[in-house]
């Protein structure tokens, strides 16, 4: 098969058995070992391999280990973990890593997220294309083994991961909070009890956790593990109100993203979460004497995010959308924090990698240090009206772009950092149109100071896209 079908811009994603077979994964594991060049067995860093709770994940992880060992790499299997648990292992051991997960995709899918040592990202431009091409050669010509295979060990990192996060955000002194958590049968069902509870042997926090769907089940019997879809938040929203909880948290399948629900059952914008966390991290490092503080946000976050960053005395850096790209920018700028509207949150103190649990802890800390409810806290960071991301299937993307440019010529400022962003001269509204990397889609995000303006801009641009 052609690996170009499953190797995406930032990871590998495909249908189990039909596309992502053990043979394919063995070749990818071997090619990854070649790319990170861990050296002779027993020397240098091993390759860390973790996996989520999908039924196919353990066998695929084992196949990848076989491929890496065949090329002489030592392998450390860390077993069941969240994606940010793999980043923790990669960072703390200073070792390259592979994580087997398809994140929020349905049960028929699986995938691989790659990291270089220190949890650094791998994209098509920074090694993933070479891994793809090397694996394709092994599939076409056969996998050549080195004289001395690499070794294999197992290691449990959950307790160390939990202790590390507890050391970054102190929740011991906050007011008591009742927290409903929807793990969607994903890895949050393992990490939440360890980090926010006492399952990892850590002291109890002033949190009453009401669990929803904590049983690890990669068939997702209750709902898909994709909190970006409003339908997947309905159960959590109802439970927060039913239990009289202070806040609700929803994690995706591999638990690297976290979504927040207020005490009324309302969804809190990921941009508001990004602004809350950014302000906390800026204040923290300023108190430690840091002066030239940088925070990253991608171009579809709400305008409130760069405003909060600037008001706190830091420098906002606007970037294109993309997981590995954000990680690269975190390293390049030395940013203390990075936020994406997709609910990925990146931390300098977590090797520049994203961590949904850590973002949730910052929100809990902020809520727990004030008497106001989550809805009031969120409202302070949600001054604008947003459309959310709207996807449209488009047969001719360049033609759609041309229609938009012609319609808004003279009405706004144009920016082509990532797709097309048009901003009103007075800043009263903006919209972004970006093509998908993998599908014939255009993604629209619009925001305005007035709801009626946002609706008008949204509908006009959608009409131009779908003409």
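^ structure tokens above, recovered residues below v
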């Amino acid at each position: 098969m052609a690996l170009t079908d499953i190797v995406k811009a930032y990871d590998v994603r495909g249908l189990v058995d039909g596309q992502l077979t053990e043979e394919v994964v063995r070749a990818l594991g071997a090619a990854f070992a070649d790319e990170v060049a861990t050296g002779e067995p027993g020397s240098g860093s091993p390759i860390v391999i973790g996996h989520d709770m999908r039924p196919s994940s353990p066998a695929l992880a084992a196949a990848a280990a076989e491929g890496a060992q065949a090329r002489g790499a030592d392998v450390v299997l860390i077993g069941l973990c969240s994606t940010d648990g793999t980043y923790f292992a990669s960072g703390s051991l200073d070792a390259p890593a592979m994580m087997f997960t398809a994140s929020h995709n349905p049960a028929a899918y699986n995938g691989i997220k790659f990291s270089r040592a220190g949890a650094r990202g791998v994209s098509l431009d920074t090694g993933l294309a070479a891994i793809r091409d090397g694996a394709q050669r092994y599939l076409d010509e056969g996998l050549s083994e080195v004289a001395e295979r690499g070794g294999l060990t197992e290691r449990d990192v959950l307790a160390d991961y939990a202790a590390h996060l507890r050391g970054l955000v102190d929740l011991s002194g906050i007011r008591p909070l009742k927290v409903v958590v929807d793990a969607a049968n994903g890895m949050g069902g393992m990490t939440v009890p360890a980090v926010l509870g006492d399952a990892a042997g850590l002291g109890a926090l002033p949190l009453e956790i009401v669990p929803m769907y904590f049983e690890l089940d990669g068939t997702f019997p209750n709902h898909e593990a994709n909190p970006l879809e409003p339908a997947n938040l309905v159960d959590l929203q109802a439970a927060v109100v039913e239990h009289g909880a202070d806040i609700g948290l929803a994690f995706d399948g591999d638990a690297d993203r976290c979504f927040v629900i207020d005490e009324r059952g309302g969804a809190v914008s990921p941009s508001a979460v990004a602004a809350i966390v950014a302000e906390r991290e800026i204040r923290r490092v300023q108190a430690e004497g840091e002066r030239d503080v940088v925070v990253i946000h991608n171009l579809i976050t709400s305008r409130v995010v760069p405003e909060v960053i600037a008001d706190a005395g830091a420098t906002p850096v606007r970037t294109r959308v993309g997981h590995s790209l954000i990680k690269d920018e975190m390293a390049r700028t030395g940013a203390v924090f990075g936020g994406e509207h997709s609910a990925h949150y990146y931390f300098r103190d977590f090797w520049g990698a994203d961590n949904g649990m850590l973002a949730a802890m910052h929100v809990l800390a902020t809520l727990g240090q004030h008497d106001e409810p989550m809805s009031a806290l969120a409202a302070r960071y949600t001054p604008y009206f947003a459309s959310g991301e709207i996807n449209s299937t488009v047969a001719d993307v360049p033609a759609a772009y041309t229609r938009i440019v012609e319609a808004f010529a003279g009405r706004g400022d144009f920016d082509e950092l990532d797709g097309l962003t048009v901003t009103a001269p007075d800043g009263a509204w903006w919209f972004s149109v970006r093509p998908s990397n993998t599908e014939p889609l255009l993604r629209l995000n619009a925001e305005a100071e007035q709801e009626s303006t946002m609706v008008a801009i949204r509908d006009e641009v959608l009409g131009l896209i779908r003409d």
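The radius of gyration is 22 Å.
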